[in-house]
Amino acid sequence: MAPTNLIGVPFDALKAALAEAGVAERAVGMRARQLWNWAYVHGAQDFASMSNLAKDFRGSMASRFSLARPEIVTEQISSDGTRKWLLRGAGGSEFETVFIPEPGRGTLCVSSQVGCTLNCRFCHTGTQRLVRNLTPQEIVGQVMVARDALNDWPSTGENRRLTNVVMMGMGEPLYNFENVKAALAIVADGDGLALSRRRITLSTAGVVPMIKRAGDEIGSSLAISLHAARDDVRDVIVPLNKKYPIAELLQACRDYPGVSNARRITFEYVMLKNLNDSLADARELVRVIRGIPAKINLIPFNPWPGAPYECSDWAQIEKFADVVNRAGYASPVRTPRGRDIMAACGQLKSESVKQRASERMAELRSQELARMPT
Predict the structure, then answer these.
(1) pLDDT tens digits for range 208-222
(2) Which residues are catalytic?
(3) Is the peptide bond before 245 cis (omega within 30 degrees of 0)?
(4) In whole angstroms, what is the distance from residue 47 CA to residue 62 CA?
(5) Contact yes or no for 96/350 (Cβ under 8 A)
(6) 3-class state of residue 76 by DSSP
(7) Mean pLDDT of 298-302
């Protein structure tokens, strides 16, 4: 039987696993804390490296458990220093994660699903059907893969290169709520991967019923993939808007637990030429978010093969930003990063494709017919 992977397992479940493995009840808590520290503070990839644990205990653990990360299929490094990993998880499903280095900080863009159900028209991931949700092990594993590659252990050390995590990769995090919640609890654990919740941002396209729950139970910063200030436009580019229109979404933002001028909501707004980039659009954006402590990230559209849109002209983006700035909102224009390796915002897509049973059967029948004599 394959060893049980302990990465992504909650602390209480880790204690239960150790008890089942024969660790004495009086020692379970201590052993669990030791393993937790080695895994998440020091980034241990095997039990043999845990030098302060007895050799026979390490051998016993290695025979039952593992600390495996997702398999790295490929790693690409952009000319601007951005790194993208294509990772393989259980059953061969593939997903991507991206590290973006900046002066004084480094942000990891983490995926929550293989594929996506939302079909946002400007997003490359949206052209790939949903394969499945990622597990807590696979979500936490993305952070650990990045830290391994960056030689960024211990997690509690100074001058860490990976300082921020954004749930902005493949998939809609709020459609994988329980797994995302479990993973981010480990990422934010001061005795674990040790990232402050203020340095963790969850981005949603607007799954309104789950937003308050995310604030209560996850407690991260919130980003909204808004991209339009009018329902008629957003219905097209973010089809989820037909279910949860802008007014409902923005009310959920006003009600988000802990929102304040010190903890603003980020609205992401991709700039699409002649679609959502007029000065009238800018004024409408300012109007609809009035009263919400917020900043607006303006994102030049990042092209991908077959994309139906073009990026707004730079001069138009600057005029749009000026309207938003004059209304009192910070509106930085996000510098595209990693475009040359398809790692920029909206460009992520793996090659994993879900095949339904009927499709597999049809393929088998076709192969059988091809082998039959004519």
Answers:
(1) 999 999 999 999 999
(2) 96, 345
(3) no
(4) 6
(5) yes
(6) strand
(7) 89
On the question of pLDDT at 232 being above 90, the answer is yes
In angstroms, the Cα distances linking 215 to 81, 208, 255 are 33, 12, 9
Give SS3 for 277. Answer: coil
pLDDT tens-digit map of 192-205: 999 999 999 999 99
Which residues 6+ apart lie within 8 Å of 371 measured at CB? none
The torsion angles phi and psi of 274, rounded to 5 degrees, stand at 60, 20
What does the alpha-carbon distance between residue 26 and residue 40 come to, in Å, rounded to a whole number?
23
Instruction: Find residue 103's DSSP bridge partners.
Output: none
Task: Quote the strand ranges of the chain, DSSP E.
Answer: 4-5, 65-66, 71-77, 83-88, 94-102, 105-109, 113-114, 132-133, 164-167, 200-204, 221-225, 265-271, 294-300
- The full 3-state SS of 86-141, as one line of letters, equals EEECHHHCEEEEEEEEECCEEEEECCCEECCCCCCCCCCHHHCCCCEECCHHHHHH
pTM of the model: 0.88
Spatial distance between the Cα atoms of 139 and 112, rounded to a whole number of angstroms:
7
- Going by the DSSP 8-state scheme, the letter that residue 197 receives in this structure is G
**DSSP string covering 324-354:** HHHTT---PBPPP-SGGGT-STT----S---
Structural domains in the chain plus CATH codes: 4-66 (1.10.150.530), 71-341 (3.20.20.70)
pLDDT given for residue 117 in this prediction: 86
